[in-house]
Amino acid sequence: MDPITATLAVWDIWAISWVIASLWSARTRRWASTPGALLHWAVVIAGFGLLFAAATLFNQRGHSWATTQLWRSPLAMGWAMFALCGVGIAFTWWARLHLGRYWSLSVARKEDHQIIDSGPYSLVRHPIYTGLIAAAAALAVEIATPQALAGAALIAVAFWIKARAEERFLRDELGEAAYGGYAARTPMLLPGWPKSR
Questions:
Q1: Residue 80 and residue 78: Cα distance in Å, rounded?
Q2: Residue 88 · residue 132 · CB < 8 Å
Q3: Non-local CB neighbours of 107 within 8 Å, separated by 6+ positions
Q4: Interval 136-171: pLDDT, tens
Q5: What is d(CA 45, CA 158) in angstroms, rounded to the nearest whole number?
């Protein structure tokens, strides 16, 4: 098995397990009505569509702008990107399990919602998005086509959009003092980056 096929298998396992785990969630108390939600979904679908279409085209060895590699990765780099994808996916699962029943597919407030600021949430405010961005970037670097890189970039933008909308909603719902304090001490998406309010 080559690194790209192995990385795609990691994505498949994540997708199936994530759908099953979505059944385990507390009752939603209030959904956010954010205009950015449609934008987020449009961009994330476009990003994943580009990324996984690029992987399919690359595996079929077709010839088009989408399958022209910008660089050729040595086998060791391919396996390193497979490992990075695995770490990103593991990070999403750590966050998902740590968040427990407060997890939601869309921006929402759950019953008895509180700020989770331990585990992966002590490293970044949105570790699920961080893990998905890292895993997408790893696959894009492996494929090394313009289409794959554009897809990964769109995925990063989509989750940044969603994170911003989620934070505005949580500040309103949980209070600026509570959420603002968490934001002041914890980076948004990348560990070690400056914290923002």
A1: 5
A2: yes
A3: 31, 32, 34, 37, 162, 165, 166, 169
A4: 999 999 999 999 999 999 999 999 988 888 888 888
A5: 9
How would you class 134 by CB atoms within 10 Å of its CB: exposed for 0-12, middle for 13-18, buried for 19 or more?
buried
Provide the token pair at 45: 């679908």
pTM over 0.85: yes
CA distance 81 to 139: 7
Write out the two tokens for 53: 């279409």
Structure tokens at 166: 């989620």
Burial class (CB in 10 A: 0-12, 13-18, 19+), 177: exposed
Residue 193 CA to residue 167 CA, distance in Å, equals: 17
Report the length, in residues, of the chain: 197
d(CA 1, CA 16): 21
* Domains assigned to the chain: 3-21+34-106+115-185 (1.20.120.1630)
Cβ neighbors of 11 (< 8 A, separation 6 or more) are 52, 85, 89, 135, 139
